[in-house]
Amino acid sequence: MSPGKPPDEFVPGIATDLDPEGLPKPPDDRALGTTSDLEEPAQEPGGPTTDDFEAGDGDPAGSVEPEFEVALAGEGHSAAMQAESEIIGAEAYGEWLPEAEVIQARGTWTEVWRRFRKDKFAVGGLVIIVLLVVVAVFAPWIAPHNPLTQYDSGLSAKGQPLPPSSHFWLGTDLLGRDLLSRLIYGARVSLVIGILANGFALFLGVIFGILAGYFRGGLETFIMRATDVMLAFPIFLLAIALSSSISHPGIWVLVVVIGIVYWAPMTRVIHGEVLSIREKEFVTAARLTGCTNRRILTNHILPHLVAPIIVYTSLGIATTVLLEASLSYIGLGVQPPTPSWGQMIADGQQYYTSAIWLTLFPGLCIMITVLAFNLVGDGLRDAFDPQQRRR
Questions:
Q1: Lowest mean pLDDT among 104-108, 150-154, 267-271, 295-299
Q2: In this structure, how many other beta carbons lie within 10 angstroms of the beta carbon of residue 86?
Q3: How far apart are CA 51 and CA 39, in angstroms?
Q4: What is the largest CA-CA distance in the chain?
Q5: Cα–Cα–Cα angle for 130, 131, 137, rounded to 5 degrees
Q6: Residue 126: which pLDDT band, with cuts at 50, 70 and 90?
Q7: Could you tell me which residues are beta bridge partners of residue 155?
Q8: Rounded CA gap, 3 and 166, in Å?
Q9: Rounded distance, CA 147 to CA 140, Å?
Q10: What is the structure's pLDDT at 253?
Q11: In whole angstroms, what is the distance from residue 345 CA to residue 8 CA?
């Protein structure tokens, strides 16, 4: 190729012409793909200009005209892509969008109830307890007869109790009293003693357990050794000894006796829970911020004891009902003529061959009541601690 003759073929980026001095011209910028290709194209008549962007206080997006948005969409940015980009940007910055799905957070009690109602046996036990409470509260209106009245028509010609009939639905006892009415009023006595006695035992157990678990030291040693001494005695024999030492046993005596007998197991349970909670980080943080012991106990430790207290309340009522029936059976519980399921079994045991209903129906009442509270207690334990069921 001669110095003054252009090449036969065009090669991009190669000089195809000479400058006046006879030297090759530099390659064209567009042929090399340099930044000159990114120059802003000429604006169409009526389109937005640079001044329009500067008028938006430094925010080009806020000053784009609708016609320009349509032009962008025509260049490949569809409306769906723009909406998707807006949603992604809003999610990245934590903004709320009307199209976003709202997830409602469940509270602690809502979650506990959701787990509890999945247990069909626990729900059945709760229904039985509700029915027992309704029967006990409205006993004067539900009972067909007076539970203390001895009816002349309630005994046979030989002085024997009558079997179930249309007048006495569950028969009569050995004194001619309506058995159904006495069972209804006996539910009131059993529930009252069970709730009050168990509440008294829980009160003592929670107080002693918190004091021993939180303050430790000599106070813990004294309380826990006293608990060991109480647990060393057989509970039933201890209750018999306490009841027999009182000349006139009754409902309130049983409440105190059962409360004294059953505070020790609850103390041990609460003591173990407090020992675990007091080492948590939030308790240490509260102590470092200057919170008093009273504030830490009431605001930080006691709320975490609600779950075991509720569970052991249900299980404790079942045990208390059994203990009350046992003491009444041997004559150290509720005294006649007040109706009590244990006392009714004791009165009717001599007729268990000829009048089986005298012992059958009171025994069924005790069994159903204890079973219902145990089922509810197990259901509450699984609801508060889902891992317990897997163990």
A1: 104-108
A2: 13
A3: 17
A4: 150
A5: 90
A6: very high
A7: 161
A8: 134
A9: 10
A10: 87
A11: 125
CB-CB contact of 352 with 89 (8 Å): no
CA triple 284-286-288, angle to 5 deg:
70
Q: Residue 294: enclosing H or E segment and its boundaries?
A: helix 293-296
176-214 pLDDT, tens digit per residue, is 999 999 999 999 999 999 999 999 999 999 999 999 999
* Structure tokens given for 121: 């046996």
The rounded distance, in Å, linking the Cα atoms of 313 and 380 is 10
CATH number at 110-390: 1.10.3720.10
Which residues share a beta bridge with 18?
24
Domain residue extents for the chain: 48-103, 110-390
Task: Give SS3 for 339.
Answer: coil
What is the share, in percent, of the chain residues with pLDDT greater than 70? Answer: 71
Tokens coding 155: 């005994």
Residue 323 and residue 236 in contact, taking contact as beta carbons nearer than 8 Å = yes
d(CA 214, CA 277): 9
CA distance 71 to 53: 16
* Dihedral pair phi/psi, residue 242, rounded to 5°: -70, -40
User: Any bridge partners for residue 161, and if so which?
Assistant: 155
User: Residue 241 and residue 245: Cα distance in Å, rounded?
Assistant: 6
Distances (CA, A) of 223 to 1, 211, 227: 113, 9, 6
